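Today's session is about reading a structure prediction critically. Students often jump straight to the picture, but the first step is always the sequence itself: look for stretches that repeat, for charged clusters, for runs of hydrophobic residues. Only then move on to the predicted structure, which in these notes is written as discrete structure tokens rather than atom positions. Here is the chain we will use throughout the hour.
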Amino acid sequence: MHPAEELRGKKNNKLLHKRIVLGVTGSIAAVECVKLSRELIRHGATVYPVMTPSATRIIHPDALEFATGHKPVVQLTGQTEHVAWCGLVPDPVDLLLISPCTANTISKIARGIDDTPVTTCATTAIGSGIPILLVPAMHLSMYDHKIIQKNIKICTDHGVLVLDPNISGTKAKFPEIPQIVETVIRTIGKQDLHKRKILIIGGATAEPIDEIRVLTNRSSGKTAIALSINAFERGADVELWYGSASEPVPSYITCRRFATVADLFRLIKDRRLKQFDAVIVCAAIANYIPKKQNGKIPSGKETLVITCVDAPVFLEALRCHLPRARIIAFKTEEKKKNVLGRTRQLLTKYHLDGAVGNTLTGFGGESNEILLLSKKGKSTWKKGKKEELASVILDML
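Below is the predicted structure for this chain, in token form.
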């Protein structure tokens, strides 16, 4: 067994049974293709490498054969690899991923020139309707060239997808590998949330006690991030409103930050809110707001009393602003026996389309046990890692 097979599906099976032709061109970013290939395989994909002559001067074909378990095509043969993979055949590949893609290759694809194995695969894929994803990487002056931009538009006008590079200084840099992989999953995954505009609200509020101290909780933000990634993978246009939390936000997720309950109320007054047709509120929002004291409360006190007042109910205001959107919210209880009743109360009181109940055990951890409650009253308990549970929660939409 080839060593690549030992990696297959190690992370998940979101690309299991998906076949990807990886076109590698002559950008210095080609050195990242071993890592990219391995990461695609860890998600279950089968990867067939194809290289331009320039790419072979940057990374040796043996490296990609080691990474993928398949000998790279560096010259088309009598096997007509471009047709076998990307042509009008009974079992074509699922995606042609050209990563990195140079300005030269972009322009050739736009003009129908196929003088390398990679561009011939592209011409064939466009003609047969196979999805193509280009990942440009080059000097910024090349990427900003008006003719290159025009050629990118020609490609996109013909259904070719382009993942924007990361602009840094004078470089249009290769995106982070996780972003490329997530975009691949989004492109050839189930896409059952395609064109849905989904807002995820996660993390914790942090209410000031004085000028330097806050009253908050132990929300890690893991569920919100897992929901955002899963919705992105399934084709949704995702925006995350994110409070105090330790889990990092992926670069490809649009994010707006909040700190306090008041910040959340300001966000829902934004006219952009109306664009969302679904909202999932998994944020740990304060029920009580401390009366902020001026300056810094001095140390050395034997006792300290903090006076709090009831916080305004965010879900109530959210439903008023989005009367037609599908809204799912979370309810946390200390004891499992109370979860169903309190979650049902939450769903009914705020006219939700679904609710998720859990206990304190899920805070900060990698896993959770949750109760899924539908608008019709059907309840189901699920247990697992938060990234797995995110998919189940999104199924409620």
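Discussion point for the tutorial: The mean pLDDT is 95.
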